[in-house]
Amino acid sequence: MKTASYLLNSLAALAVALAAAGAQAQFVKGNEAVTLLADGSRKVETPPLPSASLAAPCRADNPACTPSGWRMVETSQGLSECTEIYARAGTCRASTYGQEKRPRVWIVKLRGAWMQCPLPEAGAKCVGTKALPTSVIQ
Length: 138
Hints:
Layout: H1 2-23, E1 34-36, E2 42-44, E3 70-75, E4 78-82, E5 92-94, E6 103-110, E7 113-117, E8 127-128, E9 136-137
Parallel strand pairs: 3-6
Antiparallel strand pairs: 1-2, 3-4, 4-5, 6-7, 6-9, 7-8
């Protein structure tokens, strides 16, 4: 009986630890665009669309849309590879980070401003989103 109780307590502790780890699993530590809520869910903000109209979205399934690399954006679906920083419908797909090497730039919110970083690190020479991106094969 003690073994069963110990096993259940261990499994419960593991479940809590995994939930906490999953809630903190941002790919760029310090990305203000991702807020962890008290219930364990995430609130995710993506860069706002500019006031000027944009061209039609370049779809994520079109290889011609990513000559300078993928924009890695946290979305409500999780980490996504997008053809643009705004993550409009059709411009993103599920991330292949860690599985495939591609040119990537990370879109994050730091100190209230949207930035692009060459690596998934907030201190990695991030620049504003208006600057030319510097992607890194990763």
